[in-house]
């Protein structure tokens, strides 16, 4: 019998738990909606649908063990009351709405933010792995391992280069991600900083990597006092929760230019750095460096994290260009954990679309990555922040 895709609630990214803790303490009654979208055209999920549904059923039977809770409690930013909450926590299947319509996977998650926030990463990992099982039942593991070794050979000479695995959501399989992470940890002990996956961080005994995701800033479009102040409200909430820890801020929810308008001297001194997740990374970096210098902050003391569809070669190019001007680091995802076949992996996301009944949006710095269900709201958001609306995906 095939092992379930998800066997522990730690098989997810750190930032889901860090955001969840902030939600518990600050917005436990917030209601949200998320929607799935497959960006890869003409994908037929009909043959996978029943297996995906069964995997979600299994996911909702899992609870954290005492050993797993003790591991989380050992992270110095995780608080005792959150551990007590997690001791009783299970994902609720009633919050997940799943259909297959003419081969298209229709998936939404609706319910309390506190009780739905952990769904995103394991659901995407389930969809990815089940799809791969159906379409690539006999992968060429020798070829896949050779590709991993080639990446390691490229990185080995770059002694100052630092990167992490961010590949849980769209991995080929859980077992393959584990093998890749263990191989990198053993073969590149200096360059490989670790992984965002909590279960694998525990396995290789490295600190988990990550801070916040888009949904945290998106939610404050509905939770904050005024829309124009939503980014500052989200950053303030983060600072209140973590008091200087986990200090990498995400910049592209309404675009880098609008973010920098809010990211004043106070935040620039308080946060350790910024994360890039859309748009041209060179232009983004030049804007970040100029902003720090304008504020009379030496960017050499700031961490700039790149995480947008990176390959090893692309990451090395960015490192060679900007090392010495800042502290670059790289979160590489699918290129590490789903470079198995000769076919590109599925491009798919689950994003928050509503909070407390109000539409929320991610504008992004890349055309095609924006998501919003309400064109009127998107236009209003763009007007408030003085940015041009990008192409929007409504599903």
UniProtKB/TrEMBL annotation:
Catalytic activity: 5-phospho-alpha-D-ribose 1-diphosphate + nicotinate + ATP + H2O = nicotinate beta-D-ribonucleotide + ADP + phosphate + diphosphate
Pathway(s) the chain acts in: Cofactor biosynthesis; NAD(+) biosynthesis; nicotinate D-ribonucleotide from nicotinate: step 1/1
SUPFAM superfamilies referenced in this protein's UniProt entry, alphabetically: Nicotinate/Quinolinate PRTase C-terminal domain-like (SSF51690), Nicotinate/Quinolinate PRTase N-terminal domain-like (SSF54675)
Processing after translation: Transiently phosphorylated on a His residue during the reaction cycle. Phosphorylation strongly increases the affinity for substrates and increases the rate of nicotinate D-ribonucleotide production. Dephosphorylation regenerates the low-affinity form of the enzyme, leading to product release.
Enzyme Commission code(s) on record: 6.3.4.21
Modified residues (Phosphohistidine): 214
Keywords recorded for this protein, A-Z: Glycosyltransferase, Ligase, Phosphoprotein, Pyridine nucleotide biosynthesis, Transferase
Domain annotation Nicotinate phosphoribosyltransferase N-terminal: ranges: 10-128
Top-level taxon of the source organism: Bacteria
Enzyme's top EC category: ligase
Keyword ATP-binding: no
Family annotation (Pfam families): NAPRTase, NAPRTase_N
Statement: the UniProt record of this protein carries the keyword Cell division: no
Functional summary from the UniProt entry: Catalyzes the synthesis of beta-nicotinate D-ribonucleotide from nicotinate and 5-phospho-D-ribose 1-phosphate at the expense of ATP.
Record NCBIfam families: NAPRTase (TIGR01514), PRK05321.1 (NF003704)
Family: Belongs to the NAPRTase family.
Protein name: Nicotinate phosphoribosyltransferase
Species for this entry: Oceanimonas smirnovii
């Amino acid at each position: 019998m095939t092992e379930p895709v998800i066997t522990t609630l730690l098989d997810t990214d750190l930032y889901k738990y860090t955001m969840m803790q902030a939600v518990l303490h600050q917005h436990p009654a917030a209601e949200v909606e998320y929607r799935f979208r497959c960006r890869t055209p003409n994908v037929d999920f009909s043959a996978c649908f029943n297996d995906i549904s069964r995997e979600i059923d299994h996911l909702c039977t899992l609870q954290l063990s005492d050993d797993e809770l003790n591991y989380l409690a050992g992270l110095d930013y995780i608080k005792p009351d959150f551990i007590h909450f997690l001791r009783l926590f299970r994902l609720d299947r009633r919050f997940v709405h799943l259909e297959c319509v003419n081969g298209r996977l229709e998936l939404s998650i609706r319910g309390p933010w506190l009780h739905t926030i952990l769904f995103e990463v394991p659901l995407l990992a389930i969809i990815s792995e089940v799809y791969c099982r159906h379409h690539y039942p006999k992968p060429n593991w020798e070829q896949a391992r050779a590709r991993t070794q080639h990446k390691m050979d490229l990185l080995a000479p770059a002694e100052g280069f630092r990167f992490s695995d961010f590949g849980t959501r769209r991995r080929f399989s859980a077992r393959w991600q584990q093998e890749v992470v263990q191989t990198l940890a053993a073969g590149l002990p200096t360059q490989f900083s670790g992984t965002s996956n909590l279960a694998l961080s525990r396995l290789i005994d490295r600190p988990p990597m990550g801070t916040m995701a888009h949904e945290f800033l998106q939610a404050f479009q509905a939770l904050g006092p005024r829309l124009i102040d939503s980014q500052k409200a989200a950053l303030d909430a983060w600072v209140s929760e973590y008091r200087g820890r986990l200090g990498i801020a995400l910049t592209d929810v309404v675009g880098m230019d609008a973010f920098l308008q809010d990211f004043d001297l106070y935040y620039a001194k308080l946060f350790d750095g910024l994360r890039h997740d859309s748009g041209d990374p060179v232009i983004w970096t030049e804007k970040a460096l100029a902003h720090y210098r304008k504020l009379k902050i030496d960017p050499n003391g700031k961490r700039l994290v790149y995480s947008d569809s990176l390959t090893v070669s692309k990451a090395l190019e960015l490192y060679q260009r900007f090392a010495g001007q800042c502290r670059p680091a790289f979160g590489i995802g699918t290129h590490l954990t789903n470079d198995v076949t000769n076919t590109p992996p599925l491009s798919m996301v689950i994003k928050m679309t509503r909070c407390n009944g109000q539409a929320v949006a991610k504008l992004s710095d890349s055309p095609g990555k924006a998501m919003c269900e309400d064109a009127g709201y998107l236009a209003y958001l763009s007007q408030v922040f003085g940015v041009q609306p990008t192409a929007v995906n409504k599903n």
